[in-house]
Design goal:
five-stranded mixed sheet, 186 residues
Amino acid sequence: MELLAMPEVNGDRLYQSYIISRNKGLKSIADLQGRSFAFTDPMSFSGRIAPVHMLSVRGIDASHFFSRTFFTYSHDNAIRAVADGIADAAAVDSMIFDRAVEIEPDLAKRVFIIDRSLRVGNPPVVVNPMVSSALKQRLRDVLLGMREDEAGRAALKALNYDRFVLPDEQHYVQLREVWLAVRERL
């Protein structure tokens, strides 16, 4: 895939995985041994890859660490699973969690961030490298110009994005390294 554009959210081009729990006595992902854990999606950086990596660098095999794991297939569902006591903890996208707390401030009194992954580039818009250069440039122009158009501003607002910007490959170097380090454990 080829990077086309990346979103900027609240002035930031980076995000991370939050490890969340209802138990504010827990201080890190390493405290979750023998507890239930909700992953979001098998291929999600913040919802699966990052927490597996966070455990791996501590010498812990995620597949034998938790008492039970399951996929919610949505960061919102993972937050709800923890808030409702269905899971002891979960891994979620920091942008989605921050937005959920903004919309529902009471959530911050019931669900706590107990650990954070490294920060990487916000999820980019990508295209197949075989797409014509002209189409790539047109798509990039549309994304980068969204703030200049009423419909584009409405779409950005619905996504909770400030704007799209040109991607910086450096923001994704660590993500690739993490993926290569844990891909056999996923």
